[in-house]
Amino acid sequence: MSAPFTIAIDGPAAAGKGTISKAVAAHFGFAHLDTGLLYRAVGAKVLLGVDPARAARELTADDLAGEELRSPEVAQAASKVAVIPEVRAALRDFQRSFAQRAGGAVLDGRDIGTVICPEAEAKLFITASPEVRADRRFAELSASGAATSRAQVLADVKERDARDRNRAEAPLLPARDAVEIDTSDMSIEAAIAAAIAIIEARLP
Ligand code: CDP
Ligand code: CDP
Asked: Is the ipTM of this complex over 0.95?
């Protein structure tokens, strides 16, 4: 496909956005951008003492790699810098140009369907209960050897959900034309199949 075709995949933490986005991008041969990684990279810089707006303006591709970006501390820092309008503005153009690339693009985050790509050809809003999402994130963190508890992960998920939903700029909410997939009782394979079917129906 040569004309831009943008797929927006939004939803709360650990709903399955990233896994679904990667599978969808591989299925259609599209490029994928995990926009949470941009906010995580800014959050990580702020934990080192850099000014948030400056960290966002000066972000480079090199800042987007590293296991430390997956940590719960960086996730919290990301959601704190994500309320700052200057940070969101500094990251906007990069996300929009990524979406416009020839060959199709999948972007996952919180505000892709509402703010970054309101004209996206396909929009999905992936959800699951906070308890299910905390279980999934806890399993991932335990497997990577992180010392944490399920209760702590659930508290973190709920705190981040509240901050993401209640912020003034670009809050987490489904776009009016997004199709919602509740993955609470779905296997990841079933969720991927549902996403692909919805997108296929929107292809030219
Ligand atoms: O990107 P996001 O934070 O929304 O979630 P993810 O990183 O894609 O998924 C978090 C974890 O939940 C991963 O280990 C997924 O494999 C798992 N998952 C699952 O077990 N069942 C689903 N229906 C969706 C995700
Ligand atoms: O992987 P997980 O879903 O836990 O989080 P993430 O997608 O890596 O996003 C980390 C944080 O960045 C979120 O809690 C949001 O506060 C922020 N974020 C955002 O505000 N807008 C986006 N498009 C993506 C992430």
From this structure: yes
